[in-house]
Amino acid sequence: MKTYVLIITILISSFSFSLDSIKSRKVEKPTITHKVYLGEALLIGTFKIEFIEVLQESRCPNGVTCIREGEVVVLVDLYEDGEKIKSKQITVNSKSIFQKRNLYASGKFTVSVLNVLPYPDANFKTETNNYYLLLATES
């Protein structure tokens, strides 16, 4: 009987000490990524972003050595409640890949540009309709 009491006391003590070691952490807001192909749009509530055009593609293709890294410039239109609020040019180069560039922010959410894909390749011709924006939304 004393053995059982001792075992139960040890279990309760170890459980209470393990609760002391639990630390609370701040949870990050989730980021949701979206692909928006050329000529298509992303609709979030009453906000819409439409991928209009690839204005310039001068990124150094994979498989080629370039002196200058180049960049891609695209045009998007932003709409709120069905009304066009502005057109915006987005420039992405190798240094800015996956760095969030704020495109739109409201009290409810933020839309950022992460990248423009596909990346050029020296062995393949990229068809214009294959381009897409990689966007991130956060609530």
What can you tell me about this protein's structure?
It is elongated, with a radius of gyration of 25 Å. The strands form 2 sheets. A 4-stranded antiparallel beta sheet has the order 1-8-7-6, with no helix packed on it. The protein has a 4-stranded antiparallel beta sheet with strand order 2-3-4-5, with no helix packed on it. Strand 4 and strand 5 form a beta hairpin. The chain has one helix at residues 2-20, and strands at residues 31-37, 41-44, 47-57, 72-80, 83-92, 101-105, 110-117, 132-138. It is built from 1 helix and 8 strands. The longest helix has 19 residues, at 2-20. The chain has one domain: Tick-borne Encephalitis virus Glycoprotein, domain 1, CATH 2.60.98. It is mainly beta and 139 residues long.
Relevant terms:
elongated; Tick-borne Encephalitis virus Glycoprotein, domain 1; 8 strands; 14% helix; mainly beta; 44% strand; 139 residues; 4-stranded antiparallel sheet
List the helices and strands and how they pair.
Blueprint lengths: L1 H19 L10 E7 L3 E4 L2 E11 L14 E9 L2 E10 L8 E5 L4 E8 L14 E7 L1
Antiparallel strand pairs: 1-8, 2-3, 3-4, 4-5, 6-7, 7-8
Can you describe this structure in just a few lines?
This protein has 139 residues and is mostly beta strands. The chain is 14% helix and 44% strand. It has one domain: Tick-borne Encephalitis virus Glycoprotein, domain 1.
